[in-house]
Amino acid sequence: MQKPVGNYRWTVVALLFFATSINYLDRQVIGLLKPTLEEQFSWTETDYSHIVMAFSAAYAVGLLVFGRLIDRIGTKQGYAFSIIAWSGAAIAHAFATSTIGFGIARAALGLGEAGNFPAAVKTVAEWFPKKERALATGIFNSGANIGAVVAPVLVPWILGVYNWEMAFIVTGAIGFIWLFFWWFGYELPSRQPKLSAEELAYINSDDETEAPAASDQGPAVGWGRLLSLRQTWVFLLGKLLTDPIWWFFLFWLPSYFATTFDLDLKKPSLPLVVVYSMTTVGSIGGGYLSSWLIKKGWPVAKARKGAMLLFAVAVLPIMAARYATSIWPAVALISLAAAAHQAWSANIFTVASDMFPKRTLSSVIGLGSMAGSVGGILFPILIGYLLDSAKNSGNINSGYNIIFLICGLAYLVAWTVMHFISPTLRPVTEAELVARA
Fold it and tell me: Any transmembrane segments, and where (predicted)?
């Protein structure tokens, strides 16, 4: 009888899950405190969009930096450095006394938080064979949703009992607790004494069943060489066109519910909890679907693209949010779209790990995620303009209606672009990397 493989790799996913939860908890706080901070600092929608842009711009730069850094120094040290930087920056918000101060704190947070996804996706590639990577990615990526679920309950409670400053301090301090478990509990599979020989062989089983995309050892690969590859642009443009939608869900949904349906953000917000709880289902279910299709015999590329097309179609109904006359129909439509985004996200990260060797993966994730952040810089400019114009006209909902139309179409456009760039999602070969040295 075959000896059980073991499950230690799922302990690693649990660490990634909690790190991502903390990442999004810290990111979400300012959106929930937006009405309070608008009143105290006299922010306009444009002021707030500039603060979001400061985060987005710094996040974009940080993704490039951490993508290369993690490929050079490894996931353990790179992840630790990232969470120290972003947790410290989260706490620093409590000491901001002006709009500029918040912009600086958000920029520092963006720089630090940029290390999370390059490190986490690379860790999954190191610890899982391809047939399980989308599910593992979906599980850790669902931490983004848990952070967003916890925040609407925790932050209003802290605000009510203490003040807005304490909300930043408490949430920022949680990252240092995670750091202890990561530093003393994580190692690469080949160095982890708690890992069985059978599980290590299973983790490396791709090498036994198929030729790897390229060697996982070799000289560093520069950004210029990566940008010359079609496969890089598949991931880069997919992120550019869809990441800004998720950032809108994070930074503007609380304000949308407050202004459109009079939701009191000083109390725990059940509608936001429902939206972000459903995204957890989407993230894990989306990762499970393509992994299940592969186990059923589908080719890897067909499974990924088929699943992503389904998720792109599932976002379309959000365009009907303009017709919602009460909060719960709007919650249902936005929940479906946000869940579909997270299902899409679990698969697009895995597409990158399917096409690129582990030694270049963090750099590719950094480049693509940076493109998503550029979209996150540009989209808030449009959002701020649309909402301020709509507010001045006396009908702020007209601005949200245009935004929801953009959200609904973005994923089908992205899927189409990705398909035409590389219909088969062909893995990169070592010869292609060397030829572009």
Answer: 51-70, 166-186, 233-253, 273-294, 306-324, 364-387, 399-421
